[in-house]
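Renewal narrative, Specific Aim 1. Our central claim is that a sequence can be written position by position from structural information alone. The example that follows is taken directly from our test logs and has not been curated for this report. It begins with the structure tokens describing the chain, in the order in which they were read.
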């Protein structure tokens, strides 16, 4: 579970970075009633990225870790792209 907690922390940190350092909005929602974990990135009203993990509490630990790693990698890739574009715009 520690590995998954670390991944949740990374996702939350990246979400905060998008909100503070860019004009993208990243939201993370853990819905206990629907048993889902949902991550989305928007620029304005346009959705750029979404990932939904259904049956969150019932997922196999290793499979959940795999999905969370995929979310972290996607968010890192988008962050790198945003930083690259910001660098090009300031040059």
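The sequence written for that structure reads:
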């Amino acid at each position: 579970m520690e590995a998954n907690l670390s991944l949740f922390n990374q996702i939350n940190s990246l979400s905060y970075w998008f909100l503070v350092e860019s004009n993208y909005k990243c939201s993370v929602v853990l819905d206990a009633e629907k048993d889902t974990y949902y991550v989305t990135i928007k620029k304005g009203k346009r959705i750029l990225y979404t990932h939904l993990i259904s049956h969150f509490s019932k997922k196999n630990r290793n499979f959940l870790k795999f999905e969370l790693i995929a979310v972290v990698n996607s968010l890192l890739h988008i962050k790198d792209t945003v930083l690259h574009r910001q660098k090009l715009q300031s040059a």
